[in-house]
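User: My instructor asked us to take a sequence, write out its structure as tokens, and then describe one feature of it. I'm not sure where to start. Here is the sequence I was given:
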Amino acid sequence: MTPDPSTPDATSPEPSPFQAAGRDDTADEVVAELLGDDVDWQHLVRTYPTASLLVAFGGGCWLGLRHGRAVFTAVTGYLTHEATRRVQELLGDTGS
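Assistant: Let's start with the prediction itself. The structure tokens for your sequence are:
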């Protein structure tokens, strides 16, 4: 008999905030497993700035190729919301 994936068992870890929100956190799990929770990112970036930029660039390219449309839609929606909010502030319209 196969276990029901919808019911958590005592051996399964607590869901992350991404899982609780219904989002896939495969990348988060991989990073946490490879590096652990005690990584000092600021120290790594200060020590290896060129490597950090290359990793960030590679990650950005991968993200853009894999989820480019979703990222573009999210950024466009955010910018539109902020522009509308600021125009309303300038006009004195608080929305209530």
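For the description part of your assignment, you could build on this observation: Residues 17-91 form one domain. Try explaining in your own words what that tells you about the chain.
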